[in-house]
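Hello,

Our lab assistant flagged a job as stuck in the queue for most of the afternoon. It eventually completed. Since we weren't sure the result was trustworthy after the delay, we are filing this so someone can double-check. Below is the sequence as submitted and the structure that was eventually returned. Let us know if re-running is recommended.
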Amino acid sequence: MATYYVRTPANGGSDANAGTSTSTAWATFTKAFSASGFTSGDTVYVEPGVYRETVTALNTSPTTRAYVIGDYTGAIFGTVGEVRLTSFTTSDDAAGSTSTLLNMNTRDNITLRGIRFEGVGRCIDVNSGSTFIDVEDCVIVSQNTGAIAFTSASSTALNCNLRRCIVWGLSDAVLITPNLAGSNIVLNMNIENCMITATSNRGINFSSSGTAATASAITVENCTIHAPTGIQSAASRYSTSSGIQVLNTLFYLCATGINAGTAGQVSENFCRYAMCSTPTTNITTNGANSNLVGNLNIDMGMSFLYDYTPRMPWYMPYVTNIINGDGTATGTPTDDIHGTTRSSPPSIGVSEQTTLYTGGLAANPLAGYVR
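-- returned structure --
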C-alpha cells in the first residue's frame, strides 16, 4: 500500500515527479489514474485547487479498496479550500470539454471523497464492469444527462454507494442502468444523505438495458430531491417484491415525487412530498408513515437573510418543524449529510436540525433593511 499526492503546478506539482510526498507530488488527476498511478490499497491526497482536465482511468484496477481524497480541510497540505476537477479545461469563460469528466473505465474498489466535479458532459461515469465504487462527500454539477451514472456489467451487481453528496444536473441528475442480460441482478446500489436537483426529467432515473429480467436491492435513504420527477423506474425491469426501497426522503416542488414504471417496483415509507402536484404514481400502497401533503419546512437561506442565531445551512429543517424526528432509524444512516449523528428517530431528508453556525460570520449585509 502506498500514499500518493497531487498538487497544482504552481505549488510544485509535476507529473514527472514520483508522487510519493507533498514535495514530489503529481500535478494531475490524469497521472493519478494513469497506468503508472495508484492501485490496490493505495491512497491519493489532492491539494485544494483547480484541476482543468478530463480523465479516463487507466490504472491497474484495485482488488482491495483504494482512495482518492480531496484535502479540503488542509490536514495534509496545510491549505483549506475546494478541490475542483472541471472540464472547463481552458478557463471558466471558455467553452468546456463535453467529454466525460471522470470515466471509471471498468475500475473497481475505489472511493472518491471530498471533490467538486464540474462537467459540461457527464461528471462521473461508473460504467459497465466497474464495481464497488463509493462516491462520498462530493459536489457533482453537470450540464448533461446523468451528472453521475452507474451502469452494471451484464447480469452483475454494482455494489456501489453514493453518500453525502450534492448532485445537480440539467437532466437525470443520477442515472442507474443495470444491464439485464436475461438473468435477474441483486444490484446492491445505495443512495443516502444526498441533495439531488435536476432542472428537467428526473432526480434519480432507474433505467435499464438488456433483455427481460429484473434488478433488486436498491435503496434511497434520507435524501432531499427536487426535480420535475423525483424518482422514476423503468417499466418491468425492477423487481416488484424487492426492487427499490425509498425511506426518510423529502421530495419538494416535484410535478411527480415517485413514478414507478410498474406497480410494486418501488416501496416507500417515512417520506414527505412537499408541494408536489402528484406525490406518487403506480405506488400500490404508500407507506403508513409517509405524508403526501405539506409545506417545505427546510431552511433555504432564511436564517442568513434575517440574521438569525443560530444560522443554518440550506436544506436543514427549521427549529420547530414537522419533519424533525419524523423518520425511521431502522436500516438507515446513523449520520446526516454534515456528518452529524442523527436523532432517533431521524429527520426526513438529508439533514438533522443542528446548530452548525453560531458566530464568527460577517455582518448580515441586509441588516437594517430586511427584518
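-- support follow-up --
The delay was a queue issue, not a problem with the job. The result is valid. The longest helix spans residues 29-32. The first strand starts at residue 3 and ends at 6.
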